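Is it possible to get an amino acid sequence alongside its tokenized fold?
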Amino acid sequence: MQKSLFVAGLDFGITNTELQELFAQHGTVKTAKVVTDKYSGQSKGFGFVDMENVNDAQACIKALNATSYKNRTLVVKEKEDKPKTSSGFGGGNSQRRSW
């Protein structure tokens, strides 16, 4: 079963290919995506990597979390699934504001 990882502390010049190659040293990568600013195209310093299975994901966490890559300390952890809201607006917060 595929497992998604959140990766922070990335160098601002890293590419999707470079991110994939880094993680491929520790398991089979399905996809690797560096999150970029939609206007400038500049990396935001984090991204997501989908690994082939849970074992590969755990190997990447163990091998890469808290290590230095291009003079930045990586944070690698399992991606947290956000709960879905029924309305799609407001993130499920049902509190009303009194103005």
Remarks:
- The chain has one domain: 3-78.
- Residues 32 and 94 are 35 Å apart (CA to CA).
